[in-house]
Amino acid sequence: MLYAILCYHDENTVCAWSKEQDEAVMGKLMGIQQRLAQEGKLGPVARLMPTTAATTLRKDREPPLVIDGPFAETKEQLLGFYLVEVAGLDEALAIAKELGDANPGGAHEVRPVGYAHMGDPGKAITS
C-alpha cells in the first residue's frame, strides 16, 4: 500500500534552529531515507519552503482569489512529506514514529494514498 506521511511542526521553532541543529536533524532523517530507499519502500520526499513563500488559490468565490501565504492560521504547518510503499498501516506508523524520533516535536499524519502518478523517476525536478 502507498501511504503519505505528512510532517507538521511549528514553523517558527524549526526556522529558529541553528545551522548545526538543522543539519543534525536532517542527517538523522537522511539515514532513515537511505535505509527505506535501499529497502525499495521510499517514494518522493519533499521539504517545503516556509509558508511565507506560499500562495493560496481560494475557490470559494468567482473569480477565485489568489492570496499570499497559507490558507489557514494554525499552530503547526505542513513542512514536508514522504511517500512510502509498505505492507500496511502498522509499517507506515512505524516509519512515522522513527521519523518523529529523528525530528523532535510536531506531528506526523499518516494517510493512505488513493492515487499517485509517479512520473518519470529518472527525471529530477529542479528549481
Short summary:
The protein is an alpha+beta fold.
Written description of the protein model:
The chain has 127 residues and is α+β, with helices and mostly antiparallel strands. 31% of the residues lie in helices and 29% in strands. It has 3 helices and 6 strands; from the N terminus they run E-H-H-E-E-E-E-H-E. The strands form 2 sheets. A 4-stranded antiparallel β-sheet has the order 2-5-1-6. Strand 3 (55-58) and strand 4 (65-68) form a beta hairpin.
Map the helices and strands.
Layout: E1 2-9, H1 11-15, H2 19-38, E2 42-47, E3 55-58, E4 65-68, E5 77-85, H3 89-102, E6 107-112
Antiparallel strand pairs: 1-5, 1-6, 2-5, 3-4
Task: For this entry, give a set of tags.
single chain; two-stranded antiparallel sheet; alpha+beta; 6 strands; 3 helices; globular; four-stranded antiparallel β-sheet; 127 residues
Q: What string gives the helices and strands in order? A: EHHEEEEHE
Approximately how much beta-strand content do the residues carry? 25-35%
Q: Structural class from helices and strands?
A: alpha+beta
Please tally the β strands and state the result.
6
